[in-house]
Write a structure and sequence with these properties.
The protein is of the alpha/beta class. 40% of the residues lie in helices and 19% in strands.
Length: 215
């Protein structure tokens, strides 16, 4: 019975994700699902990305969190359309929550939609939202063993951003070994070391993203 219920839930989510995908395609919106553990730097990454894309791409944001609207308020200061989803305890966004939020966004005026998922390295990997790309932010203070502990998340990611490289002198984090482990799990993943604090490496990430949107 439990297996059947899980299949029903995932099947229903997949159907709604497909409808979201069709809506995005109609409006020619490129969608990125940004996933990470709490504190890895999802919001900082989105802010830095928005700032570098101003005048190049029209950006919109969906902010997912268990509670509060702090991140959405910070992003709204960048003068981009943003909508908040509070999950009320759920540890991830799903396609239905995303679908509900889309009605509050001017999709006709958005070329790139960044969806900040709830901070979690387990559940978000299992629920598609209708996105084009999945981006995983993994920060150096979390340690370089995360791919071993959360392989599904790294397997599902199209891009892995190694954030907070400015802290490397103070940590035991082996960037090369980390990247090698990721490639062992997911050969297609693009890997960008960067720091949202200093800006190092952020332009390379944004250039890649811009190419994806325009492509």
């Amino acid at each position: 019975m439990e297996i059947k219920v899980i299949k029903d839930i995932m099947g229903a989510n997949e159907q709604i994700a497909q409808k979201n995908r069709q809506l995005f395609d109609r409006h020619k919106v490129f969608v990125v699902n940004v996933m990470a553990s709490p504190g890895a730097g999802k919001t900082s990454l989105i802010l830095e990305t928005i700032r570098r894309l101003k005048g190049k791409v029209k950006v919109g944001v969906v902010e997912g969190d268990i509670s509060s609207s702090l991140d959405a308020e910070a992003i709204s200061k960048e003068d981009v359309p943003v909508v908040q989803i509070n999950t009320g305890g759920e540890c991830h966004l799903d396609a239905n929550m995303t679908s509900t939020a889309l009605g509050s966004l001017p999709l006709e005026d958005i070329e790139l939609l960044l969806i900040e998922n709830v901070g979690n390295l387990v559940c978000p990997a299992e629920f598609k939202l209708g996105e084009d790309r999945r981006v995983l932010v993994s920060s150096t203070p979390e340690g370089d063993d995360k791919p071993f502990k959360y392989p599904l998340m790294f397997h599902e990611a199209d891009v892995v951003l190694i954030n907070k490289i400015d802290l490397l002198p103070y940590l035991k984090f082996d960037v090369d070994a980390f990247a090698k482990t990721i490639k062992g799990i997911n050969q297609k993943a693009k890997i960008f070391p960067l720091s949202c604090t200093t800006g190092e490496g952020v332009d390379q990430w944004v250039d890649w993203l811009l190419g994806q949107v325009r492509g």
